[in-house]
Amino acid sequence: MMTTTHVLMAATAGVALKRQGRSLPMKWLVFGGLAPDLALLVLTGGYMVALQQGWLPDERLFGTLYDTLYFTNPIWIAGYNLLHAPLVIAALIGAGVWAMRRGALWGAAMLWFGVGCAIHTAGDIPVHHNDGPLLLFPLEWSVRFYSPVSYWHSGYYAAQFGVFETLLVVAMLAYLLIPPLMRWVRRVVSPTIEQREYPD
Length: 200
Description:
By secondary structure, the chain is mainly alpha-helical.
């Protein structure tokens, strides 16, 4: 999935919980939805600069060299999987729960950051054909789920998934934005109606 979709998924989950009366640190949940992709974004940005500066062999951006780095370079593997790996995420959530039970102020932030990472990874694993998160990282560095669907690879239903993702984003934006928009409209319209009904 696109990074923005992951962030929206975390935000939607948080707003849904808040509307049910649950108190939670939204910023940590949303940051957890974003954070798993940050390392790869930085590495890819550095790779693009290196290509433009001529420091690497001349080839297209997502070519053989990029794939080699992604699948074999320990820095790239660790960077991408550090916050995508289910075992690491379970450890984050567990540490957050442990800290909260002991009254540590950072416990809730850690818990909900981990939940945001979990939402991100749960969205990623089903839509990567052969390049998804490592399931047993850091204990094992090669086991992945080979999905029949890829969000980017045209040979694995990327076009169809793109339609689904677009509809999902529209639905999440509607869920997030329509209620506050309606509250704003009521605040603006109600005084106007009262002024018309009860002129000075």
